[in-house]
Amino acid sequence: MHRVALPFLALALACEETSDVDVALAGGDTTVFDSTGNAFSLSARNMSFDRRQRFVVGNSFFNKNWVAAPSSTASRDGLGPTFNARSCSTCHRKDGRGRPPGPGEEFTSMLLRLSLPGVGAHGGPLAAGPYGDQLQPQAIAEVPAEGTPRVRYVERAGQFADGTTYSLRVPNYTIESPSLGPLPAGLLISPRVAPAMIGMGLLAAIPEADLLARADPDDDDGDGISGRPNRVWDAAAGEPALGRFGWKANQPSVRQQTAGAFLGDMGISSSLFTDQNCPEGQAACAAAPTGGAPEIDDDLLADVVFYSSTLAVPARRDLGDPAAKRGEQQFLAAGCDACHTPRQRTAADDPLIEAAGQTIFPYTDLLLHDMGPELADGRPDYEASGSEWRTPPLWGIGLIETVNGHSDLLHDGRARSRMEAVLWHGGEGQAARDAVLTLSADERADLDAFLRSL
Fold it and tell me: How far is CA 140 from CA 131, 324, 413, in A?
């Protein structure tokens, strides 16, 4: 389905069942009706003209490259001294999803989180000595980059109950040419690809009480699903808060997620994170010129946060497709909805007016779930264990290939298709995976048709 004028599509949907109308509006009134390569880059459809200019400004700074200081472009200098990317859009191309590097490629939309066993500041991960909490493979002049990340795969064969074979690629991560001395003993490495940006303001607007009501840390109901909230440090409030964003729900708000990415990925300081990203022991980094204090001012940061918060969710497609309807029943029968909660409701009084009072279909509970040893990174993050991950939203999953030209899924992109992503589920997802393994080829195709429609 290509872009369709909203009034025309709304009229067409009015002739269908009300439930279909609701489900099509995955992002409530913010939903856009676009399935082209720009599907993730549009503003919320209920945004007023007056507020759209702010979205445009935020978009500009999301896409522009930052440069090293000092520079004549003072509003966007201060890159580094060490960094992963020069712009937000380097990792989030077309506001979409990153992927692991191909053969001979560098890490461009993927990074490695680092830590040591133990607990760091405010209960978070313990920094890995001079390498900090994230490997930066790039640096400005006169400053050494920290090292070169590599990933290599081996194939592991398996088969469905009907005898159909499949192969999963098992990744192995290494760091070559570490520049700050030997890598610390006990180093914990967690690979992360950049997630799609859509719907972040809507996820932020779900009432905390609603999310906590679904938590069952001790599995009191005995269903094998024990979602847990992650309590993380809120730098603005100076106290712990519910984590919602990041692969382990380690960020409490879109603002902190954005400011953290500016610092960690590009080395850009803000009023939320004022210090340069120069861990102890990086003398050249500490001596490098800066772009001011802070390097991105509060107004520009707020514009990027607004932009990130109001990127619209594309409408669900193919609602009348019999295969997708059958696939939805397979999804429910396998118990996938126990974590990938289809429906949520945002707070009526949320300060982001576009997100307030919306019925949305993100297919996530935003809670942590133990996904078993095969997906474990072994790296705790606040209250998230080394085998727990936040349930990722599924909205837009059927458009990733159209927007970003690949179908790589999971936190490190190891899954090359939606079905491979299912087959990696273990722990609390094991029962759902086992149910899928028993499906016939036609039933698996139906399940994929449903996921493709989201």
Answer: 16, 50, 28
Residues contacting 244, CB < 8 A, separation 6+? 203, 204, 211, 251, 252, 253, 366
For the chain, what's the residue count?
454
Helix (H, G, I), strand (E, B) or coil at 311: strand
Q: Render pLDDT for 33-74 as a digit per residue (tens, 0 to 9).
A: 999 999 999 999 999 999 999 999 999 999 999 999 999 887
Residues 6+ apart with CB under 8 A from 295: 69, 77, 78, 268, 269, 270
For 162, 380, 393, 422, the CA distances from 417, given in Å and listed in that order, are 20, 27, 16, 9
Residue 319 CA to residue 325 CA, distance in Å, equals 7
Show me where the domains of the chain are located: 6-27+311-453
Looking only at the bridges linking them, the beta strands covering 231-234 and 344-345 are unpaired
Q: How far apart are CA 250 and CA 15, in angstroms?
A: 43
Contact 83, 146 (CB under 8 A): no
C-alpha 451 chain-centroid distance = 18
CB 90 within 8 A of CB 108: yes
DSSP assigned state of 407: -
Would you list the DSSP string of 243-292?
Answer: --BTTTT-BSSHHHHHHHHHHHHH----SSS-S-S--TT-HHHHHS--S-
pLDDT by residue (tens digit) across 393-421?
999 999 999 999 999 999 999 999 999 99
CB-CB contact of 63 with 302 (8 Å) = no
C-alpha to C-alpha distance for 394 and 367, rounded to whole angstroms: 14
> Which sign, positive or negative, has the C-alpha torsion 305, 306, 307, 308?
positive
128 falls in which pLDDT band (50, 70, 90)?
Answer: very high
CA–CA dist 329, 446 (Å, integer): 9
DSSP 286-310: HHS--S-SSSS-HHHHHHHHHHHHS
Q: What is the pTM of this model?
A: 0.94
CATH for 6-27+311-453 is: 1.10.760
Cis peptide before 117 (omega within 30 of 0): no
Cα–Cα distance, 338 to 437 (Å, whole number):
18
Q: Find out whether 311 and 56 touch, Cβ atoms under 8 Å.
A: no
Within 8 A by CB and 6+ apart from 162, the residues are 440, 441
Contact between residue 85 and residue 98 where contact means Cβ atoms under 8 Å apart: no
